[in-house]
Amino acid sequence: MSSCAKPAELASDAMVSQIEALRAQLTEVTAAAAAERAAFDAERGKLLGLMQDAESHIGKLSTELETLRASVDSFNETAVSVPIEVLRLARTQFDYLSSGFARSGDVISQAMSEIGGFAIDQALTTNKTAEKA
């Protein structure tokens, strides 16, 4: 019986060694999985933070865009578009009026005509500056 027990004992010892090796491997795999899960959770947290920052930034930009649109709408309500040639013609008319008022001695009307001409000059100058930019 002793000779039969020996192969069974050897097989049992081999099985125990194999089970211990599998347990050690399972422990390593479990630890690696936990480390991967922790890294995944950390990366997920970073991405969620970035997403929240982006959403906040988008919200601020949307608010700023609405403010700018309202500003443009407000500007469009008070602005008119006039061909440049019409402005130049008006400028010439102001010059003619100003010199006429100067000849007649009407200093106040002359000054008003010169101010009107100056305002048109500024509009034309602003337009030239905008075209260069």
How far apart are the termini?
106 Å
Task: Look at the helices and sheets and give the structural class.
Answer: mainly alpha
Strand percentage, roughly? under 5%
Helix content: over 70%
- Taken together, the total number of domains comes to 2
- Any idea what the shape is? rod-shaped
Q: How would you describe this structure to a colleague?
A:
The structure is a single chain. This protein is mainly alpha-helical and 133 residues long. The protein folds into 2 domains: 1-79; 80-133. Helix content is 93%, strand content 0%. It contains 3 helices and no strands. The protein has helices at residues 2-78, 84-104, 107-132. Helix 2 (84-104) packs antiparallel against helix 3. The longest helix has 77 residues, at 2-78. It is rod-shaped, with a radius of gyration of 44 Å.
In short:
This protein is mostly helical and 133 residues long. It has helices at 2-78, 84-104, 107-132.
What's the SSE blueprint?
Blueprint: H1 2-78, H2 84-104, H3 107-132
Task: List descriptors.
93% helix; 2 domains; mainly alpha; 133 residues
